[in-house]
Design a protein that fits this description.
Number of domains: 5
Keywords: ATP-binding, Nucleotide-binding
Strand content: 5-15%
Helix content: 40-55%
Family: Belongs to the AAA ATPase family.
Protein name: AAA+ ATPase domain-containing protein
GO molecular function: ATP binding; ATP hydrolysis activity
Number of helices: 30
Structural class: alpha/beta
Radius of gyration: 38 Å
Low-confidence stretches: 1-5, 43-68, 328-335, 574-578, 580-585, 716-720
Mean pLDDT: 84
Largest sheet: 6 strands, mixed
Strand order of the largest sheet: 3-5-6-7-4-8
Pfam family, one: AAA
Length: 720
C-alpha cells in the first residue's frame, strides 16, 4: 500500500519507517564497499598464460582469440568498481539524518538483544541479508561476490567484512571472538532473532547464503507481509450484536492484555470458523490493533509458528493462530504447548482460535479462555435492528429464523443494497424474501450420505389436514416467530421454563403428508429443508452413529435449515434391555440424539408411521405431536381437485366425488394416480377420462400390495 493513500498520521509513520530502514541499509552497503576496497587495493597478481597441450592440431582457419585471464580479471574489476561506486552514490543520495519511529523494527530488535554486541551483530547481518532487496545495484554487488553468481550475500562475505572492520578499528577482539558471535547469531540465536535470518544451501554454516526470512524486508518498509499464508488483519471497530460479549469480564480482561501487549495465550474455542473469526476481529477492534493472521489446517508446525511470531514482533502485533474446522483433532499438540517460550521472548500475546480447546495451553504464560457461542437471540435482534432499522417490527422474527453472526448479517445487507437496483422500493415482504434468498445462497453446504437439501416450494394451500393438525402447524410457526418475545422479553428463558427451537413429531401412515407438511413449514419460515434418512445414518460400528449425527446437526446449524428426520423408528424405537455392548451403545445413540435435539435452536421434525413404535419417554421431548390420518372422503375429494389442475382437460364422465368415496387412498397415492391418468390421456391424445383415472388407481393399489376394492358400479369400458 502506498503511504500517500493512507491517513496523515499513518502515512507519516510509514514514510519515517521506510526512510530510516533505507538509510540503515545504505550505510551497511557503504561500509561493505569500504571494506572491499581496503582488501582489493593491493597489486594485481599476474595470471599465468595457459600452455597448449602436446602436438596441437594445426588450424589454418582464422578465429577470434579467447579472452585471456587478464581480460576477464579486468572485466570483473571494472564491474566490481562500478558496483562499489553505486553503493557510495546510493548512500549519499539519501537524507543523512532520519529520526526513526519509536517502534521501528530495528529499534525493537536492539532492545530485545541481551547486550550491545549481539544487538550490533544481528543488525548488521539482517541489513546485509536485506541489501539485495533495497536496490538492483546492491543485488549486482552481491552477485559479483557470490561464488554461485546469485544475487544474495553469503556468510563468508559477512565474516570477511565484519572481521576486516574489527581489525581496522583495532577492537582488540580475539581472532575467533567475532566469528563465534556471528555463529551464535546464525545458528543458535533465541527468538525472535532465530526466525528472521536463514542460511540457504549445503555445506558448513560459513559457506551458505545469508537470507532474510520472507516478510522481513516488507516489515522494515512498513508494509504488511506478502508471504502466504500470513497476512495482517485489522479489527472491527463496530460489531452490532456483540456489545454484551465485549463487555463481559473475561473478554474485557483479554482486551486489556492485548492493549498492554502482555505475553499471554488467549484461546477462543467453540462455534464455527465464521463465528470465531468475528469474535477475534471484534476483540482486535476493541483493543485498537491488528494481528498477523496465521491459518492452519493441520498439525501446528513449531518452526512456522515461530517465524510468524517473529514477523509479528516486527509489526508490533500479536499472532492470530486460526485452526480451521476441518483440522484433525490431536490429543496433544507439543507445538502449541511449547509456545510459551516464544510468547515470552516476543513480549506479545498469542491469539488462538480453534474448534476445540487446546489439550495443552502454552506453558509459563497466563492463559485466557474465551468460549465461543452463537449470538443469543436478543443480541441477534439488536443486530438486525442496527443493520435494517426499517424492518424493526420484523427484527424478532428475523432473529428467530436466522441464527446469523454479525459478519454474515452485514454481507446480507450488502446483497440487499445490490438488489435495490432491481427493486428500488421493496415492501417489507420483499425484503424478508430477499434476506432468505441471500442467506440461502451464502449458507455452506456439503453433500453428505443420507442427507438431502431441498428448497421448499409447497405452500399452505397444498396441505389438507384435520383442523387440529393444521392448528398445531400454525402454532409451531408462531412459536418460532414469537420465541424472543416470550422467552427473552417476558423472562420465560431466565425462569427455566422454555427452550429455544421447536421439536415436532409427525406420525401417520405413509403418504399422508408428513414430509409435505415439513416443506410447507420451511417455506413459511423462509429456510431450506434438510431431509435426513436416519436409517442410513445408523451404523453397526460402535460410536460411529454419534459422529454422523453430530455432523448432521452441525451442517443444519451452519446452513440454517429446517431439519427433518425421516423414518425416526430406526433410532427412536423402544429402548431395549441392556443385554450386551451393542444394546448399551444403541441406547447411548438415542440419548445423544435427544440431547442434541434439546440444544438445537431451529425446527426439528421427526416422522414415524406408527406412534406406538416410539418409546413413551420420548414424547415429552416434543413441543408438538401431530397426527396425519388417512384422509376421509371429503378430504379425498379436495385432494383430487387439488392434484387435477384446472388447466388439464377432463372428460364429462370424470366424477371426483365418486372416486373419493369408492377408493380410500392417501394423498400421495391420489397425486400419483392423477399424474398417471394425465400421461395415459396424453398418450391417447384425449382428455382425461374416467377410465384413465380408474386404471391409474388400480396401479397404485398394486404398488402398495393392497387388495383392489373393484370398480364403481356404473358400467364403463376399461381403457387399454
Amino acid at each position: 500500500m502506498k503511504a500517500e493513500t493512507l491517513p496523515g498520521a499513518a502515512a507519516s509513520l510509514i514514510a519515517a519507517t521506510r526512510h530510516y530502514s533505507r538509510r540503515c541499509v545504505a550505510e551497511v552497503g557503504q561500509r561493505l564497499a569500504r571494506s572491499l576496497r581496503r582488501r582489493l587495493s593491493g597489486p594485481d597478481t599476474p595470471s599465468a598464460t595457459p600452455t597448449p597441450g602436446p602436438n596441437p592440431a594445426p588450424n589454418t582457419t582464422p578465429r577470434t582469440a579467447a579472452p585471456s585471464s587478464a581480460d576477464i580479471r579486468s572485466s570483473v574489476d571494472e564491474a566490481l568498481s562500478t558496483a562499489l561506486a553505486f553503493a557510495d552514490a546510493y548512500a549519499r543520495a539519501l537524507p543523512p539524518d532520519v529520526v526513526p519511529p519509536t517502534h521501528h523494527p530495528l529499534l525493537r530488535l536492539a532492545a530485545a538483544a541481551p547486550d550491545e554486541r549481539v544487538a550490533r551483530g544481528h543488525r548488521d547481518l539482517l541489513l546485509l541479508a536485506c541489501l539485495p532487496e533495497a536496490h538492483e545495484g546492491h543485488a549486482t554487488l552481491c552477485r559479483l561476490l557470490n561464488p554461485a553468481g546469485r544475487p544474495w550475500a553469503t556468510v563468508a562475505l559477512a565474516l570477511s567484512w565484519l572481521e576486516d572492520e574489527a581489525a581496522a578499528d583495532g577492537d582488540g577482539l580475539p581472532d575467533f571472538g567475532l566469528r563465534d558471535t556471528i555463529e551464535d547469531l546464525l545458528c543458535h540465536a533465541p527468538p525472535p532473532f532465530a526466525a528472521l535470518l536463514q542460511l540457504n544451501g549445503d555445506g558448513p554454516w560459513h559457506s551458505r547464503e545469508l537470507r532474510a526470512a520472507d516478510g522481513v524486508w516488507a516489515a522494515l518498509n512498513g508494509r504488511p507481509p506478502q508471504t502466504s499464508p500470513l497476512h495482517l488483519t485489522g479489527g472491527l471497530e463496530q460489531v452490532p450484536g456483540l456489545e454484551d460479549w465485549l463487555e463481559s469480564p473475561s473478554v474485557s480482561h483479554a482486551v486489556a492484555a492485548l492493549r498492554q501487549a502482555r505475553p499471554c495465550h488467549v484461546v477462543l474455542s467453540g462455534g464455527n470458523a465464521a463465528i470465531r473469526a468475528t469474535r477475534v476481529r471484534a476483540l482486535l477492534g476493541r483493543a485498537g490493533m491488528a494481528a498477523l493472521h496465521y491459518p492452519v489446517a493441520g498439525c501446528i508446525d513449531g518452526a512456522s509458528l515461530a517465524t510468524a511470531q517473529a514477523l509479528a514482533f516486527l509489526h508490533v502485533s500479536p499472532v492470530w493462530l486460526e485452526v480451521r474446522d476441518d483440522a484433525p483433532y490431536l490429543p496433544s499438540n507439543p507445538s502449541t504447548g511449547d509456545a510459551g517460550e516464544t510468547i515470552h521472548a516476543h513480549g506479545l500475546p498469542l491469539i488462538h482460535s480453534t474448534p476445540r480447546p487446546p489439550a495443552e495451553p502454552a506453558a509459563g504464560v497466563p492463559f485466557i479462555h474465551l468460549p465461543v457461542h452463537a449470538l443469543p437471540a436478543s443480541a441477534r435482534r439488536r443486530l438486525w435492528l442496527a443493520l435494517l432499522p426499517q424492518l424493526g417490527d420484523h427484527a424478532s422474527e428475523l432473529a428467530a429464523r436466522y441464527p446469523v453472526d454479525p459478519v454474515e448479517a452485514s454481507a446480507v445487507v450488502r446483497d440487499l443494497g445490490l438488489d435495490l437496483t432491481r427493486n428500488p422500493s421493496p415492501t417489507p415482504a420483499d425484503t424478508l424474501a430477499a434476506i432468505g434468498t441471500s442467506l440461502r445462497a451464502r449458507s455452506p453446504w456439503q453433500a453428505h450420505p443420507g442427507i438431502r437439501l431441498q428448497q421448499p416450494q409447497a405452500q399452505g394451500d397444498a396441505l389438507l389436514l384435520p383442523a387440529a393438525g393444521q392448528a398445531a402447524l400454525d402454532a409451531a410457526i408462531d412459536r418460532v416467530r414469537q420465541q424472543i418475545t416470550v422467552l427473552d422479553d417476558w423472562g420465560f428463558a431466565s425462569a427455566g421454563a422454555g427452550r429455544r427451537g421447536v421439536r415436532m413429531l409427525f406420525y401417520g401412515p405413509p403418504g399422508t403428508g408428513k414430509t409435505l407438511a415439513a416443506e410447507v413449514m420451511a417455506h413459511a419460515l423462509g429456510v431450506d429443508l434438510m431431509v435426513v434418512d436416519l436409517a442410513g445414518l445408523v451404523s453397526k460400528w460402535i460410536g460411529e452413529t454419534e459422529k454422523q449425527l453430530a455432523a448432521v446437526f452441525d451442517l443444519a446449524e451452519r446452513a440454517r435449515t429446517l431439519l427433518l428426520f425421516d423414518e425416526a423408528d430406526a433410532l427412536f424405537a423402544r429402548r431395549t434391555e441392556t443385554q450386551d455392548a451393542h444394546d448399551r451403545y444403541a441406547n447411548l445413540e438415542t440419548a445423544y440424539l435427544l440431547q442434541r435435539l434439546e440444544r438445537f435452536e431451529g425446527v426439528a421434525v421427526l416422522t414415524t408411521n406408527l406412534r406406538s413404535n416410539l418409546d413413551k419417554a420420548f414424547t415429552r421431548r416434543f413441543e408438538f405431536i401431530v397426527e396425519f390420518p388417512e384422509p376421509d372422503a371429503d378430504t379425498r375429494a379436495e385432494l383430487w381437485r387439488l392434484h387435477l389442475p384446472a388447466s388439464a382437460p377432463q372428460a364429462p364422465d370424470v366424477d371426483l366425488t365418486e372416486l373419493a368415496a369408492w377408493y380410500p387412498i392417501t394423498g400421495a397415492q391420489i397425486r400419483n394416480a392423477a399424474l398417471g391418468a394425465g400421461f395415459l390421456a396424453a398418450a391417447q391424445g384425449s382428455a382425461i377420462q374416467r377410465d384413465h383415472l380408474l386404471q391409474a388407481i388400480e396401479r397404485e393399489y398394486d404398488k402398495a400390495g393392497r387388495a383392489h376394492p373393484g370398480f364403481p358400479p356404473t358400467p364403463t369400458r376399461r381403457c387399454r
